[in-house]
Write a structure and sequence with these properties.
about 575 residues, two-stranded antiparallel ribbon, tt1808, chain A, 17 helices, seven-stranded mixed β-sheet, alpha+beta, single chain
Length: about 575
Amino acid sequence: MFHSFYTVVFLSIFTAVMKGPKSFNVENDFCFTKEDCYEYNLPTFFISLKASSWLEEEILAEKIVSLNSCVIQDAETGLSVITQGFTKLQNIDELPDSLTDFAKHVLTHYKRPAVKKRFQHHFETTFDHYSVQNSKIQATNSLLKESYRIHTSLGTVTADEIIGCGTSYHSDDSQKSEDYHPQRSRNYTVDKICEDPGSPQDSILMSQLREFRHRSVELSKIDVNQISDLRLLSLDFIYLFSEEIDKSVTKYLGTEGHLSHVPEFACDRPKDIDPVTFNWCMKLANFRFNDNNNKWMELQKTTIAMLNEAITNYDKPVVQVANLLHTVSVPIFPSTSGHCHTDTQAFFNFNCRAPRLLINPNESKVEDTHIHNFVSYIIKLVFGIEDILKHEWANGRLHSEKTGKFKPDYVAYVRTRSTRHDLTIAEVKPTESSSRKPPSDLVKLGQQMKLMLNNLVSYKIPNPVVCGILVEGKKCSLYKMDIVGPAFYRMVHVVSFSLCTNKSEVSLIPNMFMWMSCLKDITIETAKQIEQTEIARAKGKGKRKLDDFIPESWVRRGSCAYKYSKTIQ
């Protein structure tokens, strides 16, 4: 809601309006905030535009072109967006009368033929100038990239020139995206790309990103290897959002456009955990043995004491972290012989296997070994203790996928009667090197999450959300996905963090646990929705309002296939 301060400003605007357009001046400095635009679903160029500027056609035309040139390319569309925005404001009952009158005045102003003609002139002039400048920037960057490719140097190009000619996020339509795949030596084509006619229900953001997808489709016809994963995901109607602009599809809307939309997809922070867990981590990281012939027993005593302290004095999350430390610390500090000697040690023989966090680097290149040593223990402790979830490891097939195309390394699912619903998957690769053929692990993860989500929509599960875990070497990234509109799958990058792979990194475990628990909570919420839906159906109360469900018309079946074409010369 608008505060009393804004009411005062609106009154001053109203007074100026009553005196006529010519009385508007810089003292009428009210402008819409990001919160206002988010709350009332207004276009992003409404932000920071002073009230006095709304009746200055040249200023308004420059603002629209600078922020929305990839979507709004003619004056008629620009006027339509202005009209739609102020019509919304005019119809909101709780707004002050002063702002409502201001909205009416702006609408009346831009309906005048003379005003439309002036606005069209200013828009076309500004757009032509912007197009020329943008073409220069793209040409300069193409020359710089080609020069660097040939000579591995930028020669006499100075840092100032590079900064001045650098491509902005907003204008990145070059064929070679910044995260292209240089290791792919063969040419691939994309099969089964569906058309996207758009929808009258689209927000401004959706319309902008559908235009982005259209451009991605055109680029995919040239060279798939030189297209970023953000663009390849969009071919499957999947749009990846992240608070980190480099990883988010909103980077193509410019920095201001990205920041204005962050509140729409920002994720909740994980719950804090008691600092005692970090004290335990530091104790283990600096652990010194008294008897080198009895290391295993010393670690057992230390970590079990931590576990006992957690159970006696702290809540469940602290107990879980203590359990993690107990599980992984013995493999961190293996005995010199690697064998169990006493009956007590034999009882805990699962901890006497090959060292989980101190293995040979070459061995970690094997996928199954990498999962066992660096990934499985955190997933098992966080997801495995939930009674509502079931689990499948080692390349199990997605239930809703019949061809065997997708085989994730881990699946968490729920089973109701004879039906299985997949909720969270993990894809694990022992190194961070990119795939030599499309799709990449990120694109493949997105395609699988879309398939899982489609299955939940088909079963009329309200507000479904699915999750994904992507491990590339020591880096772990968490994702979630939902559907927010027709053919619009919103994939959100929750967080990326480093895995604990050796003794010196044991202090990373609490952070790993907190974020993995955050993803688990999302999974459990959807699992409960499934369970409640099935219970209601069993009692004959399965009918709900249509508003509770995602329309089947929003779903897009299938996913893009990539075919080898020929060797690149």
